[in-house]
C-alpha cells in the first residue's frame, strides 16, 4: 500500500521489545486535495534503524503494509489505530513548492539583470512535470 500525506509528528526512534532492533515511528495525516476537515491519520513505523531525515510538515510517500492495531485505552475502552509497517518513507516536493523555488530563482536573475550583474543560466532548460497518481499504482504524466 502507498500513502501520501503530511507528517503530523516528528519521527521518533524506538527499540523493539522482542528483537531489540531500532525503528522510527511517526504520525501521518492523509488528506484529499484542498482543505480536508477530517484527514485520515496513520501511525507509521519505518522498520530501518536509519534516521529517515523527515520532520513535521513534510509531504511524504510511504510504502508498506497496512494493519489495524487494536488495544485497550487508559480509560479501559477498546480503541485502535491504523498502522503502516513501512518499507520506505520518502519526502516528496509538492509541485507548488517546486514552482515557488523556480519563481524565486527567476526573480533573483531578473534582479541581477536590472542591476547589470552577470547572469548565469543553466545549460539546459528546467522542466517541471506534475505527477498525478491514478487509481492503480501507475502514473499519468
UniProtKB/TrEMBL annotation:
Domain of life (superkingdom): Bacteria
Q: Which InterPro entries match?
A: NA-bd_OB-fold (IPR012340), Primosome_PriB/ssb (IPR000424)
Q: For this protein, what is any one GO molecular function term?
A: DNA binding
| Stretches for region Disordered | 103-141
Query: Which keywords label this protein?
Result: DNA-binding
Q: Where is the composition biased (Polar residues)?
A: 132-141
Protein name from the UniProt record = Single-stranded DNA-binding protein
Look up and give the organism this protein is from: Rhodoferax saidenbachensis
Amino acid at each position: 500500500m502507498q500513502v501520501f500525506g503530511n507528517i503530523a509528528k516528528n519521527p521518533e526512534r524506538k527499540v523493539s521489545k522482542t528483537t531489540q532492533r531500532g525503528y522510527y515511528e511517526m504520525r501521518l495525516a492523509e488528506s484529499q486535495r484542498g482543505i480536508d476537515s477530517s484527514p485520515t491519520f496513520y501511525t507509521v513505523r519505518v522498520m530501518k534503524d536509519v534516521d529517515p531525515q523527515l520532520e513535521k510538515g513534510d509531504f511524504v510517500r510511504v510504502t508498506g503494509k497496512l494493519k489495524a492495531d487494536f488495544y485497550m485505552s487508559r480509560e479501559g475502552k477498546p480503541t485502535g489505530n491504523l498502522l503502516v509497517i513501512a518499507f520506505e518513507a520518502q519526502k516528496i516536493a509538492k509541485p507548488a513548492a517546486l514552482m515557488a523555488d523556480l519563481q524565486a530563482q527567476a526573480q533573483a536573475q531578473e534582479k541581477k539583470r536590472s542591476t547589470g550583474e552577470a547572469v548565469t543560466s543553466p545549460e539546459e532548460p528546467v522542466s517541471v512535470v506534475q505527477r498525478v497518481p491514478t487509481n492503480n499504482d501507475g502514473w499519468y504524466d
